[in-house]
Design brief:
mainly alpha, about 80% helix, about 160 residues
């Protein structure tokens, strides 16, 4: 089983659990995020261990590695910053979940997941407004992200 497949499976399990919890309770528990963080740290250490010969061979790859990890953390950092700036209108748990997902997914996958989730959120918000259900209600962001991640997995395997 490849590392990419393992990462996809781990993220799928956690994003489905978080999506269900976000839909039901409008929050993600610290226990779930802690378990996800633990799995992410173990996965990242194993991934880093397998890449050490390439990393230590020279500093020429350093800018590429920095760009990769910046892309991995950007969506989560953006959502956390949005939560802080908006006084919690966007969920801190959503941002933490995306930040932790960067431990498993590539930078390209993280950016794609972020934009697919934003597009899904926009479409649902527009539909709610058009159908007259524009009352102030929160959209379950991680539930939408779970659907977006399934699309990402389908696209990855295509």
């Amino acid at each position: 089983m490849s590392a990419e497949t393992s990462a996809g499976g781990i993220v799928l399990v956690f994003i489905l659990a978080a999506g269900i919890q976000d839909f039901r309770e409008r929050r993600v528990s610290a226990r779930l995020l802690g378990a996800y963080a633990g799995a992410g740290l173990i996965f990242s250490l194993l991934e880093l261990r397998s890449r050490i010969p390439g990393i230590t061979s020279g500093m020429s790859a350093f800018p590429e590695v920095v760009r990769e990890y910046a892309a991995r953390i950007f969506p989560g950092a953006f959502l956390i910053l949005s939560s802080l700036v908006s006084g919690g209108q966007t969920g801190m748990g959503d941002g933490l979940f995306f930040l932790l997902s960067g431990l498993f997914l590539t930078g390209k996958e993280m950016i794609l997941l972020f934009w697919l989730t934003m597009a899904g959120t926009f479409c649902l918000a527009a539909a709610a407004l058009l159908l007259g259900k524009g009352k102030k209600t929160g959209l379950p962001y991680l539930t939408i992200a779970a659907g977006a991640f399934v699309l990402l997995l389908i696209g990855r395997d295509a």
